Amino acid sequence: QVQLVESGGGLVQVGGSLRLTCAVSGRTFSNYHMAWFRQTPGTERVIVAAINWNGGDTYYANSVKGRFTISRANAKNTVYLQMNSLKAEDTALYYCAADRSPRAQVMITSRSYDYWGQGTQVTVSS
Fold first, then answer.
1. First-to-last CA distance in the chain?
2. Which residue, 7, 25, 58, 96, is most buried by CB atoms nearer than 10 A?
3. Distance (Å, rounded) from C-alpha 63 to C-alpha 52?
């Protein structure tokens, strides 16, 4: 059973920074593409960033390019999301997700991901 546990969310002022962490159980973490999604009430879950199995390929939503950085530490079964220059519109519930399929590239739709964490709330106050 693969479990994903997010942490690092919280309340921060506009312009501040947070680092989200996703700890993944299981022995095959290094085979998974990983991603962060976010969701606000009444909207669909949308991709924020994704990273392939070895960290050599990344994807960022246009809204976070230049401000957020996704990274991973396979030896620690962990993926990170460094969020800088936070804006009020970044407020959302952030989810970590894992794609177990041996794809050539990262996917950006939620239906492509097999495992999900419970989410961590990020609130950016103005």
1. 40
2. 96
3. 20
Tell me if residue 110 falls in helix, strand or coil. Answer: helix
Closest by CA to 52, choosing from 74, 76, 75, is: 74
In this predicted model, what pLDDT tens digit does every residue of 9-68 receive, in sequence order?
Answer: 999 999 999 999 999 998 789 899 999 999 999 999 999 999 999 999 999 999 999 999
CA-atom Rg of the chain in angstroms:
13
Q: What is the pLDDT of residues 85-98, one digit of tens each?
A: 999 999 999 999 99
Question: Which pair of tokens denotes residue 115?
Answer: 């495992």
Residue in this structure with the two tokens 């022995």, named with its chain if needed:
27
The pair of three-digit structure tokens given for residue 16, joined into one six-digit string: 């501040």
Q: Which two tokens stand for residue 8?
A: 């690092």
